[in-house]
From TrEMBL:
This is Methyltransferase domain-containing protein. SUPFAM superfamilies: S-adenosyl-L-methionine-dependent methyltransferases. CDD domains: AdoMet_MTases. Gene3D superfamilies: Vaccinia Virus protein VP39. Pfam families: Methyltransf_25 (PF13649). It comes from Absidia glauca (Pin mould). InterPro entries: Methyltransf_25 (IPR041698), SAM-dependent_MTases_sf (IPR029063). It comes from the Eukaryota. Residues 79-170 form the Methyltransferase domain.
Amino acid sequence: MGQQHSKRIFRRRKNLDTTSLPSPVATSSSFTKASMFRYKEGRRYHEDESIPYVLPNDDEGSNFEVPLREDLEKGHLKVLDAGCGPGTWLFDMAEDFPHCHFYGIDVAPVFPQGIKPSNVTFALANLTEPLPYPDHHFDYIHQRLLLFGLTLPQWDVAMQELLRVLKPGGWIEFVEIDQEAHNRGPLLKIITDAMTQMLVSRNMVPDISERLVNYMEKYQLDHIHTTIKDFPMRHSGKVGDLFWDDFQRVAHAVQPIVSQTHSEWSSSQGYKDYLLSCADECTANQTTLSARSVWAQKPCVPVH
């Protein structure tokens, strides 16, 4: 098994706030794309401001790392997005590869119930329980940003179940945020440390991004690769502003929990002011947060 490390900027990303749905422009029988995009300086972007991918979504970008582009273009692959949220990643992939079929599962029905591309299917499912698919069903499985979703024992359960439904020779890819920001100031350190303590207290895994390779090796997967990509936090233009917005939404979601150990955050206005100070600090320090994509191939021959 080999492992490669490289570093480049994310082309697309998924919003951590699953309460806001994308705005599809067609029914399942007619998913047109002309009105979905806007163009700036020769690059293509989503027209709908609610779509969280803020970098170009043309061919210079990529929604995935696995070496399957040619096969996806040929079609007839089955792809699963585990923990799909509102389905943004699936919508992009379905538009880019119309001859493949994409499946999205999530524990909550935050995905569109009716209006969607004809080659996308959603289902309610829990990664810690048997998935509603037969063995060896998918060619490619994608999972992103479940740092706040799985406990330590559940990562093993999820891995086993995902590998059950992955075909021999199929590819699996995980994307998770690194635990510590680069050029992190003291204000940001306090709140990110509080988040880490919250995760640990619930037996979750704040450093899961650094453990993903170990999971791949544990289950004897082949061709393990890692890519590390940086996100600016509240600097470098719109990308940094929107990534900070994502972080801020997560911070607000966990306020009732982290305020239990930091009484000064129990006031909504006080907490909001603290986050604004963190934002200014990130701008001044040019803070960045890294995410890791780790992907590998299921052996074609079962490992005993």
